[in-house]
Amino acid sequence: MHKKTAHELNKLLAKKESSSQELTTAVFAHLEKVEPKIQAFVTVTKEEALKQAKAADERLKNNDNVTPLTGIPIAIKDNMCTKGILTTCSSKILSNYKPPYDATVVEKLKAAGAVVVGKTNLDEFAMGSSTENSGLHKTYNPWDLNCVPGGSSGGSAAAVAANEAVMATGSDTGGSIRQPAAFCGVVGLKPTYGLVSRYGLVAFASSLDQIGPLTKDVTDTAIMLNVLAGHDKKDSTSVDRPVPDYQKSLVNDIKNLRIGIIKELLGEGIEPKVKESIQQTMKKFEELGAKIMEVSLPTFAYAVATYYLIAPAEASSNLGRYDGVKYGQRSPNSPDLLTMYNNTRAEGFGPEVKRRILIGTYALSAGYYDAFYLKALKVRTVIKNDFERAFQNCDLLLSPTTTSAAFKVGEKSNDPLAMYLSDIATIPVNLAGLPAISLPCGFIDNLPIGLQLIGKAFAEETLLRAAFTYEQNTDWHKRKPSII
Amino acid sequence: MKYETVIGLETHAQLLTASKMFCSCSTKFGNRPNTNICPICTGQPGVLPVVNKKAIELAIKTALVLNCQIAPQSIFARKNYFYPDLPKNYQVSQYELPLAINGYLEIVVNGERRKIGITRVHLEEDAGKLVHKGAARIMGSSESLVDYNRTGTPLMEIVTEPDIRSPLEAKVFMETLQHLLQFIQVCDAKMEEGSLRCDGNISIRPLGATKLGTKTEVKNMNTFRGIQKALEAEEVRHREVIAAGEKIMQETRYFDEITETTKAMRSKEEAHDYRYFPEPDLVPLEPEADWVESIKLNIGELPEQKKSRYIAALGLSAEDAEVLLATPALAKYFEACLELKAPAKAAANWLIGDITAYLNEHEKTITEINFLPAQLAEMLEMIENGAISGKIAKIVLTEALAIGKEIKEIVKEKGLTQVSDEGELVKIIKEVIANNPGPVTQYRQGKTGIIGFLVGQVMKATQGRANPRLVNQLLGKELSKN
Q1: A217, A211, A145: which is closest to A177 by C-alpha?
Q2: Domains of chain B
């Protein structure tokens, strides 16, 4: 039962062929078996989950406000606040932090009747592409335990791939939903900036962060997005516009859809086997009636550099609050305030977080601001304009999600620059605030690879329709790792 | 060589909003520590700010009164620095694009009108309050506690051009600003409580020079007197340093209220690099023109306009008008009386005279007493229609102020109604004439001034209740009879 998707389980629950309690118990039985190998979770909340499952069963029994998520076991990335439940951001500095409130997305998921099985591991404060930067422990790829699950939402992607949860939330600042989705062979959507409330998402880079679903198929993505999307008056950057029913866009038809293939993402730096898969994917879309064209986005060359100024700059300020004064870990035995600050942050943050705080602090410093931060903001606008130009002639853009399949644990952890550069396909999308989805489109040596579709702002419906059509006409999503 | 002093002020005013700048917590002063707090103002991970519209309205109102241009788009910025009273370790403020720019405030110093330029008006959030044990500051204290009740209170920063030419002008500027902020009800502007604060930038230069001299910034000026004293001390120091052929160092200095001198706090090199950058959690502020216009329309009369009206239309003396307007609440009280058709001059006289005397004696403000404008208006009406005399009114008012009773009730209870019954008065007048043959003779011999004494006797016989106008009239009539 734990192998099924939310929309499949939904039918079972609706027909009373099973209960949320049975389902939740089954998920935990499986989780307890595979978790020692995968280590997707920071905190497992079995007791609360069983209570929520019981409440969901009541709702199902009384047909009281039943939603497609009622009774469905889900996982929450551990950088989203959960009231009274540890929210660590996989950082030592917050290893004891229990928020006094629920993030808006958590509130919404709970209200829909979802059952929270636990909080998933991530690269510390979502900074990384392999979950190796977690300050707590590593997470392993269910397809190959020697490989990373990707990151920063590696815990969520691995948990869904290994059937430890039916679906999970992720957050995406430069690819943190899409890249682990690709590495773990699941579907991951980064919505348009402003579609989903960030209230309660522990900020990494506020102008780039966005919460989205990680699911087993495109239908489940639409189901979860229906709950997550919508204006929140607690988030001034969330956009006040009507939210459509995304399940309605799950139509198996892409005739005459104009898809642009990004030239820059099929050249240097992309593994040949990834290229091959993408070329086959292109053919598949063509067969399905789409019009394929090549599109050039020359400003992509500057995206990684731009991102690594803007994101660390914002992060250097966002992470200022972890100082040992109010909550989280405080270094003991510091004789004065400055020493307490220094020791707390030196002991509490890992090397990648420190590196980014340093880069960001530098980029914002007097005398460097114009040359770095301000310049980066300008380039960001140029990249945005480049996308707009591309979208004059096409409805969607297509590229590989990653330059390769999942790499080995430890393979890139000593070369941060190589790690940064591997996010070339996902980073420009965040800079432009656009929506993008990653879904399985092939395998290299039994490791999944992902296809990325990028849409215009708030064109999630087009994205979902194209992704759904591709999924309906391929079998990649049906292949599962042997561990499950 | 002759030198001139150049001063610019940076002032901070707490806005009179019910809730904080970026969350819905109360801004109430005086509650127990850490009771007016929430996840947002304590900087919990994941929280986001939402702008308080009332704070923007009050800042726009102030900016309009200060003749500023309201920016069609302004943005919030983060000012980054570490301190335990600042939960996020950055303050949300405005930097490059403030809410309003290019205004001025007119002040009068020694009878001379001076126009002080306003560089900018912007919004920001206040920090919390630290309480130290074992030392006055965090350095050296055995422990320090932090109260976040004040954290996130809306602050408005008003920055002047370097247009101020003396410490006295600086003081007058602050007094004028305080008065204005209180008048338009955007800030209670109490320097002693910190709801209005100011720092000064001061330099000197040869008279006639256009280039500014090296400035120092003076902090901890907590009273009007302190502002003048601090800047005077710093002015003298600048002159002495330059007279000695040395150079002023750009630095921040601290005013010591006890010694009335300034002390070096930190040099330019030690100044913080605040790493300002646009606040990504907030969208640009773009006040709609209609909204700004409606705020403008609701500002109402300003003190200067009111003063002219009081003098021209109501016939008040300039002095009385100024006294009334010096305390916004008093002016408000006065205008409430006028709305109730009270005679303006009489209302002003009673307010400035007996009522103010009572307030001073009991250390109260006009809003703290139980005597309402309606009651004063009623009393004035009773005087005018002859129901009570002015003298009786004084007695009754004292009682009304003390116990908060209705004027009519007191008058009735004490039997203080004015005697206007001619028959009764003539009877008393006849008795007075009979009992005072001497003065009566003098009067009849042409010493008519003596009538005052006789009127007094009648008043005495009626315990002051006789209608004086009528007594004069009837007494004259009786005395002319032989």
Answers
A1: A211
A2: 3-291 (no CATH), 301-414 (no CATH), 422-479 (1.10.10.410)
